[in-house]
Specification:
This protein is an alpha/beta fold. It has helices at residues 20-26, 42-46, 65-80, 89-97, 119-122, 181-187, 191-198, 210-228; strands at 6-10, 31-35, 50-53, 84-87, 102-117, 134-144, 150-156, 159-166, 170-173. Strands 2-1-3-4-9-8-7-5-6 form a nine-stranded mixed β-sheet, sandwiched between helices. The model has no long low-confidence stretch (mean pLDDT 93).
């Protein structure tokens, strides 16, 4: 029987899978690319092994039809037990789908930030045993409250909720563990990101902590994929 693909919802072309993609390939998982506004019915959800929601410069609070449709999609995926991974905007949409508020963070986090793991993370099958603190790349102006019954997994000094797990197979990551130096270089040149870039006081070095983040990403994403692949 053919392996079911991982459904990946990409909000903008320049925010792809990054370091997640080679891990999916390593496990032999095909990718089914999804786009905002695409109709995804329950039968489509039955044919994917996981739903991955990437980032983007939009807001989970935007009054656009696709936002409500995507929140409904996430809720249906959770009800069906489909493993979900949300990154940045994707994480905020997951939080909102689970009933939590998405709001402006006190500061924009753009660049490398010292990230700490919670006691719950140390017991988590995906985040347990990671170096603490870890330098992880961030690019967000908004954040989320913790959904009811969710476990907070990470925080920084300027953002209380950096990651959470809901149930056994829903993970939301505010940070960009998936990025490569080339992705960062591309982001600082994108029109959609330039407003943020002009606010920066310091140059972002795309390679500053790239090696340690890549090692961390491989560990985290391999563990997550290992959970969603049926024996």
């Amino acid at each position: 029987m053919a392996t079911r693909p991982a459904g990946v919802l990409r909000h903008v072309s320049f925010e792809g899978l990054g370091l997640i993609e080679p891990i999916l390939a390593e496990f032999g998982l095909p990718i089914l690319w999804l786009e905002i506004g695409q109709t995804i019915c329950d039968s489509d959800l039955a044919n994917i092994c996981a739903l991955i929601l990437m980032g983007g410069p939009m807001s989970a609070n935007d009054p656009e039809p696709w936002v409500g449709a995507e929140i409904d999609l996430i809720r249906r995926a959770v009800r069906r037990g489909v493993p979900v991974l949300g990154v940045c905007l994707g994480a905020q949409l997951v939080a909102k789908a689970l009933g939590a508020r998405v709001y402006r963070n006190p500061v924009k986090e753009i660049g490398w930030f010292e990230t700490h793991w919670t006691a719950a993370a140390r017991l988590d099958p995906v985040f347990g045993g990671l170096p603490d603190p870890a330098q992880i790349f961030q690019w967000h102006g908004e954040t989320f409250e913790l959904p009811e019954n969710a476990e907070c997994l990470a925080y920084t000094g300027t953002c209380a909720h950096q990651a959470f797990r809901y149930g056994l197979s829903v993970y939301a990551l505010q940070f960009h563990l998936e990025v490569t130096p080339l992705m960062i270089e591309d982001w600082v040149s994108e029109d959609a990101k330039c407003g943020d870039v002009r606010e920066l006081r310091e140059f972002i070095d795309p390679r500053l902590h790239a090696a340690s983040q890549a090692a961390l990403a491989r560990m985290v994403f391999r563990r997550w994929v290992d959970q969603i692949v049926l024996p």
